[in-house]
Amino acid sequence: MKKIFLITSIFSFSCMFAQEKKLLPSSIKMLIDESNIKKENIIDLQTYIEEYYINASKYFNKGALPIVEKGEYSVLLIDEKDNKIIKKSSDFKNIDPSKIKEFTYEKSAKAEYLGGYFGANFGVISIKLRK
Fold it and tell me: 77 and 27 in one domain?
């Protein structure tokens, strides 16, 4: 039984390595067809954050929308030292998607603690950027 497990493991790892090195085709297809990419559909991170909050509010607050000005939505930025800094959505307008390490939306008691009244009603978006 151990031999079978060992052989199976070695085969699996060799296939994964070969796919990473482009020596073996991947069985996973791209989820985005390159021909469907359109420049007019591109949005910046500020817009994405604000639309996320609006849609979360519609869902969690029975269709009620937040009364917050564009660019004034609260976002929790987590820096490389895990310091938590409250920023405004307008601070994220020109952030490239490749710079984002982690994007999280949380609606919980912790969100209320982090975001106060806003966090309790609308949740909290936290963003961790790559170094």
Answer: no
Give the gyration radius of the chain's Cα atoms.
21
Helix (H, G, I), strand (E, B) or coil at 29: coil
Calpha distance 131→104 (Å, rounded): 18
Residues 25 and 81 in one domain: no
pLDDT in tens, 47-58: 999 999 999 989
Gap between the Cα atoms of 76 and 86, Å rounded: 5
Write down the pTM of the prediction.
Answer: 0.68
Under DSSP, is residue 98 helix (H, G, I), strand (E, B) or coil? helix
Q: How many residues are given for the chain?
A: 131
Tokens at residue 15, please? 């296939």
In this predicted structure, what is the pLDDT of residue 60? 87
Assigned token pair, 45: 């991170």
Domain ranges, residue 22: 2-32
